[in-house]
Write a structure and sequence with these properties.
The protein is α+β, with helices and mostly antiparallel strands. The chain has helices at residues 4-7, 16-23, 68-71, 87-107, 128-132, 168-184; strands spanning 47-54, 78-83, 119-127, 143-146, 156-161, 188-189. The longest helix is centred in the middle third of the chain and has 21 residues, at 87-107.
Length: 192
């Protein structure tokens, strides 16, 4: 298999990360364009945004945003938006996309039932090299960023976490460290 196979993936959503790790065990494909409509690989200095939704990314015990906001990185790939314009200009556009996505999820689709309680809360911002630096052991590229463009979204990317060979405690530590990184900028809340 080749790096380009990542951009052509059509299998089950819950097998996406496993597929990527099989194609790219060392993380080298991060530096190759894999999305058909993307502007190229995610560069280290790129600003990325991760949408936050209630109740999906909320603790049922505390009602606060928790590490579930990055949990998809370990199975499905955690979607991010590549921000290639000034943050202040990008933020209203990101909020529109987040609200539209929440509406789609509320309405459901052929792939998923309606989730009428889904609400868009806002967006976390982080820089690609900071995410790639998150680690819990000597194995490189535990956190990866791929340019997984979509036909209607060429600036779509995915966070993919490689927890292969980690103990249960280190898996949780990796997840928490990634969450703390994306949380650090603070939530840029929806203006509606």
């Amino acid at each position: 298999m080749a790096c380009e196979d990542i951009g052509d993936y059509i299998g089950p959503a819950d097998e996406f990360v496993r597929f990527i790790l099989g194609v790219d065990p060392l993380g080298d494909c991060q530096s190759v364009k894999v999305g058909r409509t993307s502007p190229g690989p995610v560069e280290d200095d790129e600003v990325l945004a991760r949408f936050v939704f209630a109740p999906a990314h909320m603790s049922t015990q505390t009602g606060e945003i928790d590490e579930t906001v990055v949990l998809d990185a370990f199975k499905f790939g955690a979607s991010v938006n590549r921000v290639q314009i000034d943050w202040e200009q990008a933020l209203p556009v990101l909020h529109q996309r987040g609200e539209a996505l929440a509406e789609q999820i509320r309405n459901g689709s052929a792939q998923r039932p309606p989730q009428p309680d889904r609400q868009y809360l806002g967006v976390f911002r982080f820089v690609a090299h900071s995410a790639r630096a998150v680690n819990v052991d000597a194995v490189p590229a535990r956190i990866r960023l791929y340019d997984t463009s979509l036909p209607d979204d060429p600036l779509h990317g995915d966070i993919v976490a490689s927890n292969f060979g980690l103990s249960k405690a280190h898996k949780k530590e990796l997840r928490v460290r990634l969450f703390l990184l994306v949380q650090k900028s603070g939530l840029f809340p929806s203006i509606t």
